[in-house]
Structures are given as structure tokens and as C-alpha cells.
User: What shape does this take?
Amino acid sequence: MNDRAFGVTAGLDAGVAEPLAGRCAMLGYVSMWSNDHPGAAGLDTLATFAHSVPGIDFGVAVIALDRHTPESIAARIEDLGLPQDRLWIGVGAGFSEKPLTTMREVLPALREALPKVKIVLAAMGPKMCGLAGSGYDGAFLNWMTPEAAEAARGQVHAGAVEAGRKPPPVLGYVRTAVGPDADERLRKDEAFYRDLHDGYRNHFKRLGAEPGTVGVASDSPYVAQAELARYEALDVVVVRGLASATVGGMTGLAGAVAPGGSESEFR
Assistant: This one.
């Protein structure tokens, strides 16, 4: 049995983020997550989550290290007063020319700058999954089918075994939409990433999945629950909510795919 978390796009209005975090905590989600992008800082969104719901974990996935340094991340965490014992920081290579080398060589600096934080590595390909297993506190997957997630988990575990350490947890975003426009929401979000850079292009080519099918989209919350249950290879399924950025839209989706089963019919 895996855990379930809820994730949003960075920059979500505090008037939405605060009640969403509270609702997710009540529904049994173990943590709240945000991405990070040039237009909005994921750590700022986490600050809203952290200060509105004491006790729940929170994380950002992922911060690209072509735009941020370990030291700048640490400074921003300090400025925001984020409780580091509850914090997960996902890091990735971004548009670095040598992503695997970058993420291998930066780990000591990350450990020095963020000694109390759980550091997870954005991983899609076999080598990056192996690196996550060998040295990081977890692997964070993205845009995976259930079958691909299972293969990635095996690669993470193989990296851990080779390094002589216990396999770290495997987490991952699963884009999720429920309602009459669910298919279109998933298709639109996926289309953006499919051609973002070579890493994503190669990843989707390996997947071989039809456009608009990598994730969960359904009119029915019960079908969505069944599809999310197929991601049993993930220790933590982070439901990346594809819904209107309103209190009703986000909390409605969180309830529809809540960890204990659909709270009520999605409206």
C-alpha cells in the first residue's frame, strides 16, 4: 500500500493554497507538493502550505540546478522559515548539457548546504534512476505509465544495491484530472512537456504511449481511483492536480481521488 500526496503548479494563490492544504490534510494526504518554474517559485508556494497546516510534510519537485545553486536554495528556505524536518527538495539538471554528470557532482554541495532536508533526484532514464538509488534520499519520477514506473523502481533499487545501501523511496507525479474536460486537461499539460527539451523528448519516445494518455483522466472519480491504484510501484503517488485554480476546483479534485477512496461524486 502506497501513500498519496497532492501537488500543484507553483504560484497558486494563497487564498486557494491554504484551504486546499487543510482539506488535503483532513483527507489523509501525507504531503503537499509544488513544482518550480521561471514564472513562480515553488518554495514560496510551500511556505503557504507549511504555515497553514502544521505537521504535514511538503516538497518541491523539482528545482532546476541550471537556474539555482544549492546555496541560493538554502538561503531562500531560511528566508521563508520553512521547517526543514518536514521538507523535501527535489532537484534536477534542467537544461544542463551533461545532466548525469551535473547531478552526480553537485550532491556533496547539496548535502553541505541542506544538511537537514530530504533531497530527491528527478529521474526518468535508467542512469538517473540508478544515481538516485545510489546517493540521494529518493527518486522523483515524472510522466510515467504504471509499467514505466515499475521499471524505474527496479533501476533505483539496482543503484542502491550497487552502492551497498538501503533503497530510498520512489515518489512521482501522476497528472490527474476528473470531470467532463479531463481528457483535454491531461492532453494539454502533456503536450507542453513532450517537446520541452531532449530529455523529455527521449523519455516520451521510450514510453511509446499515445499523446494524452500518460496520467489519469476520467469523468468518473471511481475510475480515476482505479487508475491511480495501478501506480503501485510508487511509494508516494503525488497527484498532480489538473483542475481550475479555485478552491472548489482543487478541493473537489482532492476529494474525488482522496487516499481513502472518493469522498463524493466530483462536481
